[in-house]
Structures are given as structure tokens and as C-alpha cells.
Amino acid sequence: MSRELADSLRWSDDGTDLFLGLTDGLSESKFDSASALPNWTRRHLVAHVAANADALCNLVHWAATGEVTPMYSSAEERAASIEQGATLSGPELNRWAHAAASKLGGMMGGLSESQWSAEVTTAQGRVVRATEIPWMRAREVYVHSVDLRLGAEFAELPEAFLHALSEDVIRKRGEVPDVEADLPQRVAWLTGRPSGLDDAPDLGPWL
Questions:
Q1: Which of the pair, 174 or 169, is modelled with greater confidence?
Q2: Do 103 and 21 fall within a single domain?
Q3: Residue 200: its pLDDT value, please?
Q4: Is 96 found in the same domain as 122?
Q5: Where are the beta strands (DSSP E) in the chain?
Q6: Residue 22 falls within a domain, yes or no?
Q7: CB 106 within 8 A of CB 71
Q8: What is the per-residue pLDDT for 177?
Q9: Cα–Cα distance between 73 and 182 in angstroms, integer?
Q10: Where is the Mycothiol-dependent maleylpyruvate isomerase metal-binding domain (predicted)?
Q11: What is the CATH number of the domain that holds 73?
């Protein structure tokens, strides 16, 4: 299926609302509970999503001004930011996540048609147009909403988003086995999340 900029912007907004709605008001003990990601608590996950918004703001700035501003100065800086964020209290984490998301949304809303066509480089070294930025954010907030283990499931995410995500993951992973499953299960499997597909091969981590 084709994915339009308007789709990505809508999914970015709606996924952000879902993620922040799940984490707002969590007790400290619930922040300290394990997420679905190995060795990460929910506190780590919220710090990661907040830092991701800050990093994507760098790409929006790049697109808007032409000034080269990488997402992260280094992989080490990225990891250190998450670890430092995981030491914050719940209210501090939520304030950071909300502020970073709001800034990113505002900056994306200010891009002109020509700026959306500007090329930027992702943290993985891929050169993409700025129109990929809201899609990158939508993937983060929707998938990590499920990773929070607070009730969100792939089956509850927009079907069109799941189709787009499935195509995106397959494009990046390369050829994958043909596994019979419904769309939410297949997307969970493709993204390396628990899927209930006991006979499907392990594809390894993604995102």
C-alpha cells in the first residue's frame, strides 16, 4: 500500500497520544516494572521515546535550515541519554516526554512543501526525505506503546498503519518466510515481539 505524508503525520500524532496516555500518572513502582524489551524498565522505554523526539527534532531542523544536525552525536551519546533518563522520577520523565513530543509536532507543522522534500540522514545512516520523519516517529510511539505492557496490543492499532509497518519491516529485513497469521500477529512477529506463532522462526530484534 502507498503511504502518504498525511497518513504518517496522523499516525505520529495518534501514536504519541496513545503512548503518553498510557504513561501519564503511572506510579514509581509501575515505572520500575519491566517493559517487553530485554533489560529495560518502562522508565528506560519512556526515556527512549522522549529522546527519540528530541533526536527527530534535529532532523526537522536539518530539513528546515539545511544545517547538518544528526539525530545523535554518537551511539554512545544515545545510550547515555537513555540511561540518564531512566534515573528520572516519573513526573520528570512525563514532562520530558510531553515537551519533546510537543516540540517535534510543532516543528513538523512548520515545514514547507519544499522542506519536506529535503534529504536528511537517519541514525542508521540511511539518506531519506524529511517526509520519513513522521513515519519514523509513528513506528516508535505505536510499537513502544505495546512494549509498555500496559494494555495496548497490535490488534488495537490502525489497520492501515499495520499494513504500512509490515511492508516497511519486510523491506528492511529482506526476504522473510511466508507465515500464515492475521495481520496483528504477523506484525508482532516481524518486529520481533511475542506473537503466539509458535512455529514461526525467530527473526531477531527490530527497532
A1: 169
A2: yes
A3: 87
A4: yes
A5: 119-121, 127-129
A6: yes
A7: no
A8: 87
A9: 40
A10: 16-149
A11: 1.20.120.450
Beta strands, E only, 29-158: 119-121, 127-129
Same domain, 84 and 113: yes
Please report where in the chains the cell 545510550 appears, as a residue.
79
**Same domain, yes or no: 29 and 96:** yes
Domain span at residue 112 reads 5-152
Whether pLDDT at 1 is above 80: no
Quick one: pLDDT at residue 108?
98
Beta-carbon-side half-sphere exposure of residue 142 (alpha carbons within 13 Å): 29
Does 180 lie in the same domain as 102?
Answer: no
H or E stretch covering 197: none
Cα separation, 154 vs 13, in Å, equals: 17
Tell me the average pLDDT across 154-179. Answer: 93
SS3 119: strand
CA 12 – CA 142 distance, rounded (Å): 8
Q: 137 and 82, same structural domain? A: yes
Cα angle: 188, vertex 80, 120; to 5 degrees: 65
Look up residue 157 and give its three cell numbers: 492499532
Q: Which of 46, 57, 58, 55 is nearest to 85 (CA)?
A: 46
Supply the pTM of this predicted model: 0.95
